[in-house]
Design a protein that fits this description.
Arc Repressor Mutant, subunit A, 2 domains, four-stranded antiparallel sheet, about 45% helix
């Protein structure tokens, strides 16, 4: 779907390098970018064999995740309005040698800059190549932070942090999610999540019901999430 005026305005405002492009480069983007709709659960990017281009999130929420050899998912980071999916253009990025998957968490709208267009910009515009490097650096910092959590934080602390993050995203204490969805995001087994949530419930931190988790004590979750990390090898799941 070609871009209407509203989408063109959104795209111009969302690309940090837009004002540093030449008029020819701007026209190249505007004439080739396309609006996309993604129902919740649908795929935007399916591993290294897929290379659609650069997605700019207009609405909704998408997540970037990897798969273990056993098929277990772990979310690397989530993207929201005006965030940019750089790994969906991974085929033009040097030294990206692992499969990354991107899917819509909610019904989402994006604007896609095709691979060929972004590759041209990245090779010919210093502003775009600088932005690409900065964004990659930021995303890899997110991944390193995640790996540090998995390796050096106890699971109860990680789960407390996750619930507080979900609450901030939803804007309330009632979280509409399942234990399986939490396990996917955190890269662990559903049984591990269920066991810890039941412990949280017994301690008065949350109340559990089918498909929902209500936070009862934000103060206790915050105290747990700010505890010093345990030594490596202790309390991990």
């Amino acid at each position: 779907m070609s871009l209407n005026q509203s989408n063109l305005t959104f795209l111009r405002q969302s690309l940090p390098f837009w004002n540093r492009l030449t008029e020819q480069e701007k026209k190249l983007v505007e004439s080739n970018a396309a609006a996309r709709s993604h129902p919740a659960g649908s795929s935007l990017h399916n591993g290294s064999a897929d290379c659609a281009g650069l997605f700019v999130v207009k609405s909704g929420q998408v997540r970037t995740f990897i798969l273990s050899d056993a098929g277990r998912e772990i979310t690397l980071f989530r993207l929201f309005e005006r965030d940019i999916c750089i790994f969906s253009a991974s085929c033009i990025l040097k030294n990206i040698r692992f499969d990354v998957f991107i899917e819509a968490v909610q019904d989402s709208e994006t604007i896609l800059i095709p691979t060929s267009v972004y590759k041209y910009l990245n090779q010919n515009s210093l502003a775009v190549s600088d932005y690409t490097n900065q964004l990659l650096s930021s995303r890899f910092s997110d991944v390193v932070w995640l790996m540090e959590q998995i390796l050096f934080m106890s699971f109860d602390r990680r789960l407390a942090m996750f619930l507080l993050e979900e609450s901030a995203i939803s804007g309330g204490d009632l979280l509409t999610t399942t234990h399986e969805e939490i396990a996917k995001n955190m890269g662990t087994a559903r049984e591990v999540v269920t066991r810890m949530l039941r412990y949280f419930q017994s301690e008065g931190l949350v109340r559990l019901s089918r498909g929902e988790i209500r936070i009862l004590s934000r103060k206790k979750l915050q105290a747990l999430s700010s505890q010093a990390a345990q030594t490596p090898g202790h309390g991990k799941s």
